[in-house]
Amino acid sequence: MSKPLPRKQRVLNRGYLYSRTADDMGELSVNLIDIDSAIMYYFDSVIQPSVEDNGENVKVPIMYASPERWKAIQRDGFMRDKKRQIITPVIVYKRTSVERDETVPQDKLDANNPNLFYTFEKKYSRSHRYDNFQLQQGLLPQKEYYNVMFPDYVNLTYEFIVWTTYMEHMNNIVEKVIYSDGAYWGNPEKLRFRSRVESFSDVTEVSDVERLVRTNFTVSLKGYLLPKGNFDHRSTTQKFLTPKKVIIGSEVDTAVTKNIGKAGQFLEDLPSAQTQLPSTPTGDVSVTVTNGLIFIGGTGVTISQDGVLFDGSIPMTQTISIGQSVATTDNVTFNQVSASSLVFDDVTYNGDSITGDLNITGSVTTTGDFTINGDATIDGIITAQEYHTEFVSASIMFASGSTQFGDTIDDNHNFTGSLFVSASSFEINNTSFAGISNDTSLTDSSQTEVVTEHAIKSYVDSEVEDTNVYFRKQFVKTSATITTSTASFTATTASAPTSLTATGENDFIFFVNGQYMEHDALQVEQSGSVFLLKVDNDSIGYDLESDDEILAIGKFDS
User: Fold this and answer.
1) For residue range 11-66, what is the model confidence (pLDDT) as tens digits?
2) N or C: the chain end with fewer CB closer than 10 Å?
3) Residues 91, 62: contact at Cβ < 8 Å?
């Protein structure tokens, strides 16, 4: 049994409170489960898919897949029974989407208090009929009208999967489904919905043990939804009755001719002294009551005729007053006021909270905690023993000693403007720095100073320039004189920067008469302005001759 609504929430319109006890017209509702059930009914009762198996006509079961079962089907590609055997034939379906049908526009104005109805008249019922009494009295029958709320029109999409063992069985099922395209699916005694069958996709899976034929297709339904809800405490179906005229007739056999007295008696039955009816009084009439009325003043209330009995025999004027004037323009003084809330213009004091804008001219002193849930704007100076902030990070500013910014390593503190720090050291993540160096040659080799961008750029530029110049040097020289084991060149080797390995034979390649000379049998030597190539004749396997042409390619100055 549901809990009754509070009295202030109850509907006072008696037009909504007709008795529905004997009605055969119940509250109409259409839910998603009704549409799902309509598909199940249509397959079981109308399409009736079946296959021939071993000479028997076997009805193909249809199941609505739960989310867990559908996930298992998508993963495995088939269904199994409790014995872990693959089930065939079987049809499984699932609702995949629900969308509003924009082709049928409507505006209920307020979804919780709809004002769009379909009205129809009930032609006949036990209370809505002609009978002998109505014919004799000339009464028209009372008409019954019903208002049914307009539903929400939606488009629903269902995905179907059909498994069989043989293609012949699959063909029988698919043919029946295609033939039902465009029909109204559902129970004719309840709800039916227009259907549309989309394209089919066939897959045949054959393994060493099992053979499956699977077909996937989708079905679109034109549906509508009318849920049961608290629509302004009204049902989806409202009953209305037309007014009915009631005629009350009377019949008398004897006319009443006797005069009636003041107490309802006939005059001739009264004593002779009372046969005269009283005349209408004129002027003021004095009335005296037995139990009089006494006004007594209470706390803060003064009554002019305090404690005087008033029985109505004589006029009495009573003046009720309090100790001060309480006009809207007066200044009213109270020793103490107790109330659940106080309202001053747009400011409300309610218990321990203030609602609205509050402006205070003067000083405010509080001995307890002071909490501001919104923004605070202070035009003056803030003086505090400790200053704590919590917004992404936390900071504590002490009156003296060290100041702590943040309480965890992930706190971020942003500073806009100039920052001046006067200290003997600067520490980050337990690493101490003594200062910032501008040494462009990086010769100080300090382990406690951080270099500037200028120093790094100057050093890198000098090193890169010398290195780039060295790397770009690549010249070809021809031998000037040749002996059996030595070739002389009028050339000077390029000097490598200090950061690179000194120039050696690996920085040159040599060719004798166009043939590459192996480095393992060569040595180079700079003798003044002459570059010498010395050959190990045993290793190279031949002697040099004076008419040989030897080319040297490598790091020469020019």
Assistant:
1) 555 555 555 565 656 667 888 888 999 999 999 899 888 888 888 888 888 888 88
2) N
3) yes
Other CB atoms within a 10 A radius of the CB of residue 512 amount to: 20
Q: Which of 236-250, 454-468, 469-483 has the least mean pLDDT?
A: 236-250
Residue 42 in 3-state DSSP?
helix
The rounded distance, in Å, linking the Cα atoms of 421 and 432 is 14
Burial class (CB in 10 A: 0-12, 13-18, 19+), 160: buried
Reduced to 3 states, what is the DSSP secondary structure of residue 36? helix
Nearest-CA neighbor of 427 among 405, 396, 398?
405
CATH superfamily of 32-114+150-227: Myoviridae tail sheath stabiliser (3.30.2000.40)
Q: Would you give the DSSP letter of residue 197?
A: E
Asked if the peptide bond before residue 243 counts as cis, ω within 30 degrees of 0, the response is no
Q: Categorize the per-residue pLDDT at 433 as very low, low, confident or very high, splitting at 50, 70 and 90.
A: confident
- What is the C-alpha separation between 495 and 558, in angstroms, rounded? 12
Residues across the chain:
558
Domain extents in the chain: 32-114+150-227, 292-323, 384-413, 421-466, 473-554
Q: How many Cα atoms are found within 13 Å in the side-chain-facing hemisphere of 250?
A: 3
- CA dist 363 and 372 (Å) reads 17
- Which tokens in the block code for residue 346? 């747009």
Sheet with 393-397: list strands edge to edge.
387-391, 393-397, 404-405
Residue whose entry in the numeric block shows the structure tokens 């699977």: 214
Rounded CA gap, 260 and 139, in Å? Answer: 37
pLDDT tens, residue by residue, 187-200? 888 888 999 998 88
Q: How many CA atoms lie within 13 A of 110 on its CB side?
A: 7
Which tokens belong to 240?
Answer: 């209305």
> Rounded to whole angstroms, how far apart are CA atoms 558 and 476?
9
Percentages (nearest 5) of helix, strand, coil residues in the chain:
15, 30, 55
CB 277 within 8 A of CB 262: yes
pTM over 0.85: no
Beta strand residue intervals within 315-370, DSSP E: 320-322, 341-344, 347-350, 353-355
DSSP 3-state of 186: strand
Please report, for residues 189, 529, 557, the alpha-carbon distance to residue 224 in angstroms, rounded to integers and kept in the order given.
Answer: 17, 102, 92
d(CA 499, CA 466): 10
